[in-house]
Design goal:
The chain is mainly α. The protein has five helices and no strands. It is 69% helix and 0% strand. The longest helix is centred in the middle third of the chain and has 20 residues.
Length: 100
């Protein structure tokens, strides 16, 4: 549910467009992408109690979304990769000694 919240109601049209590399951008895309991916990282950190997993989610989410923006993957692949990441975080949580 954290992913659904961050990727749909919390991702405005501005964010969805501005997070992609565009030559006519009004703001640097990387800052918008970091903000968007950071909301996902915050959701993961809050739900798992692990700052490390939140940081991992921020980084991976940004790379996945950038790949979608550049046309390297499609929407369904993007969403599948995001869900798989959440599964990995859940599986890693019990074995992480540094999951704080």
């Amino acid at each position: 549910m954290g992913h659904c919240l961050c990727d749909y109601p919390l991702q405005t049209t501005f964010i969805a467009q501005a997070k992609c590399r565009r030559p006519d951008a009004q703001v640097p895309w990387v800052w918008v992408m970091l903000g968007h991916a950071g909301t996902h990282g915050l959701a993961v950190a809050l739900l798992t109690g692990s700052i490390a997993l939140g940081v991992a989610e921020t980084v991976v989410h940004g790379f996945i979304d950038d790949a979608k923006c550049r046309g390297l993957i499609n929407f369904n692949q993007d969403q599948t990769l995001h869900v798989l990441c959440k599964l990995v975080w859940v599986l890693l949580l019990p074995v992480l000694p540094w999951a704080l």
